[in-house]
Amino acid sequence: MIRQKVINSLSQRGVTGITKRALLYTRDLIRWYLDASFDGRYRVDTSGKMPLSAFKIDSEHVENATWYEPVPTLAFRQLIRQLPIRFEDYVFIDFGSGKGRALFLASDYPFSKIIGIEFSPELHAAALRNIGTYTSSRQRCFQIESLCVDAVDFELRPEQTVLFFYSPFKAAIFVKVLDNVMSSLNRWPRSVYLLFVGLLPESIEVFENCSLSCREVKLGPDWLRWEKKRGLILHSGISQDCQKGKNYVCRG
């Protein structure tokens, strides 16, 4: 029976097709192992890739969301290291934080506080469990929380902030979230950075057409996903000295 299945598979897909499927399977095994090793090392559960249809989400915006997948560690660190800031002066907020992988990576830096925004009650509950068990010798920020709220409904506080987006939703939601960011900046001018990692062209276009200054950061290839994601950093244009009454345009 097994021999016949192999023969049928060869006739349907050919040697090239079989080889490709084997490589994909091997890639997925390696990816699972690396994700699982992160979880095992820090006693959390953040790995895996799941469609949002696997969760019960009561939101009119669920159709414009993407899926659950933890952010690649390398891409995250490459973006964070490009920030010309004193981390202690900023709050880090992850939109579409899922089970909290980006929150834990951010805690390697001394942010004043770290907040996850997640509209799935199940993913939010998983994040709370992970926050309760996460420990790392590299951790510099211990003020971590997850909020179960729709990204469109989240109100930014008048504080200096780093906003992180790992392709959590499509362009229609990005437009609304960016409108909220701009309204907050118009009311309370301050230094706010937006960090984006993703592939969807329409989402990237929303950021590139935003009135905030925008620059691209070259990210290393994500070999485990065979993808070349783009990294963007946007800034409100006011330095952190604005809190001292001095408004400087950021040239970086």
Question: Strands, helices and their partners?
Answer:
Blueprint: H1 2-42, E1 50-51, E2 67-68, H2 73-80, E3 91-95, H3 101-106, E4 113-118, H4 121-133, E5 144-148, E6 161-166, H5 171-187, E7 192-198, H6 201-208, E8 213-217, E9 230-235
Parallel strand pairs: 3-4, 3-6, 4-5, 6-7
Antiparallel strand pairs: 1-2, 7-9, 8-9
Task: Describe, in plain words, how this protein is organized in 3D.
By secondary structure, this protein is α/β, with parallel strands linked by helices. It folds into 2 domains: 1-42; 50-244, Vaccinia Virus protein VP39 (Rossmann fold, 3-Layer(aba) Sandwich), CATH 3.40.50. The protein contains 6 helices and 9 strands, in the order αββαβαβαββαβαββ. The protein has helices at residues 2-42, 73-80, 101-106, 121-133, 171-187, 201-208; strands at 50-51, 67-68, 91-95, 113-118, 144-148, 161-166, 192-198, 213-217, 230-235.
Could you write a compact summary of the structure shown?
This protein is α/β, with parallel strands linked by helices and 252 residues long.
Using brief descriptors, characterize the structure shown.
disordered C terminus, 252 residues, Rossmann fold, single chain, 2 domains, 6 helices, two-stranded antiparallel sheet, alpha/beta, 7-stranded mixed sheet
